[in-house]
Amino acid sequence: MARPSDAAKDRELIRILSENARLPLSEIAKTLGVARATVQGRLARLERDGVIAGYTTILGKAGAQARTISALVLIELEVKRQGGVIAALKKRPEIVACHTLSGHFDLSVKVECETASDLDAMIDWIAELDGVRRTTSSVILAQKFER
């Protein structure tokens, strides 16, 4: 088990990376008040332990042109079909997020497509998946903020 001070440094390291994952290790080390090798070791351990699963690029408005229309699709499943449906959804790059839900619907997925007709086809594809009872969709008009 990590010492409390180590756990606090790990949390701070994760916070720094969440703000800018491209920050050089030397700058991270300076911010944390530790050696560069210490940061490198912590990162390796956090990756090995599965705390950090990967790094990503978040597109700004200028880069968002590749995907221009998004929707949230709520999915009601047939009993005991969640695993197969999620596996099928995960294979499609247009589906960028999937969450399980409580209530009338079992899953919520965010779909991003280049055109409205592509989005329509993707929503139809989801509805036709084996194990999907029904869906309802809402096109996303604008993003007000994201954290």
Question: Keywords, please?
Answer:
5 helices; Arc Repressor Mutant, subunit A; Alpha-Beta Plaits
Figure out the total of helices.
Answer: 5
Number of structurally distinct domains? 2
Q: Rg, please?
A: 20 Å
Q: Report the count of strand segments.
A: 4
How confident overall, as mean pLDDT? Answer: 89
Largest sheet: 4 strands, antiparallel
Order of helices and strands: HHHEHEEHE
CATH class of the largest domain: Alpha Beta
Topology-level CATH name of the largest domain: Alpha-Beta Plaits
Structural class: alpha+beta
Percent of sequence in beta strands: 15-25%
CATH architectural arrangement of the largest domain: 2-Layer Sandwich
Pick out the low-confidence regions.
none
In what order do the strands lie side by side in the largest sheet?
2-3-1-4
Distance between the ends: 30 Å
- Helicity, in percent? 25-40%
Task: Tell me about this structure.
It is built from five helices and four strands, in the order αααβαββαβ. The chain has 147 residues and is an alpha+beta fold. The protein has two domains: 4-48, Arc Repressor Mutant, subunit A (Orthogonal Bundle), CATH 1.10.10; 61-140, Lrp/AsnC effector binding domain/regulation of amino acid metabolism (RAM) domain (Alpha-Beta Plaits), CATH 3.30.70.920. The chain has a four-stranded antiparallel sheet, covered by helices on one side. β2 and β3 form a beta hairpin. α2 packs across α3. It is elongated and about 55 Å long. 12% of the residues are buried. The mean pLDDT is 89.
